[in-house]
Amino acid sequence: MTDRLIARRSSRTRALVAVGVVSLVALLSACSQAAPASPSSMVSTSTASVSAQHNGADVEFAQMMIVHHQGALQMGQLAAQRGASADVRALGRRIVAAQAPEIEQMSGWLAAWGAPSPTTAAHAGMPGMEVGGMTQSDATGDLAGRSGTELDRQFLTLMVSHHQGAITMAQTEQRTGSSPAAVALAGEIVTAQTDEIARMHTMLGQLPSPSSELD
């Protein structure tokens, strides 16, 4: 009787010890898995990864395209607010919606690469920046002075020229850039803006001729 009681107590003790060991191992495992990398180490790792994959062509592309996109936003906002036709107003909104996030994206690259933010004055005379034979500032001022169908026509005409400049810059990045993200964005710009040029030519053909507006 006593031997059996001792045996039962010994068996129960071994079982409790085993459970305790399993629980301790599980707790230690969970703690090691739950400990995330610190935010600062995650950011520095991400930044190092971005910084390692760029060259001078990538920096120049981002700086020039930011300034170029800013010009598109100015003209797009004018068209969205004052365009005579619903199609032109919608196009202006689409351009703003597409290019504003790209400005933010490219600004992030420059910060990660330790490169300065661009200034309009420093890049205004660079290839691809001319808009319809004018500087971006003059083109925006010219558009702001128009209204009605005349504004629509000038917006489409200037934006075709503007897109052509962006495509030229993007194609240069495709040939000479080394950042996978920047080269990928350049390809997206070429595709999207080539399509928009075709649509804008169609829209121009649908506008009333200037002579009919005078009648």
What does this structure look like?
The protein has 215 residues and is mainly α. It has a single domain, classed as Ferritin, core subunit, four-helix bundle (Ferritin, Up-down Bundle), CATH 1.20.1260. Helices cover 81% and strands 0% of the residues. It contains nine helices and no strands. It has helices at residues 2-34, 39-51, 56-82, 86-113, 120-123, 136-144, 148-176, 180-206, 210-214. Mean pLDDT is 80; it is low at 1-49.
Q: Looking at CATH, which topology would you report? A: Ferritin
Q: What is the approximate shape?
A: elongated
Count of folded domains: 1
Return the CATH architecture. Answer: Up-down Bundle
Head-to-tail CA distance between termini: 121 Å
Annotate the secondary structure layout.
Layout lengths: L1 H33 L4 H13 L4 H27 L3 H28 L6 H4 L12 H9 L3 H29 L3 H27 L3 H5 L1
Helix pairs in contact: 3-4, 3-6, 3-7, 7-8
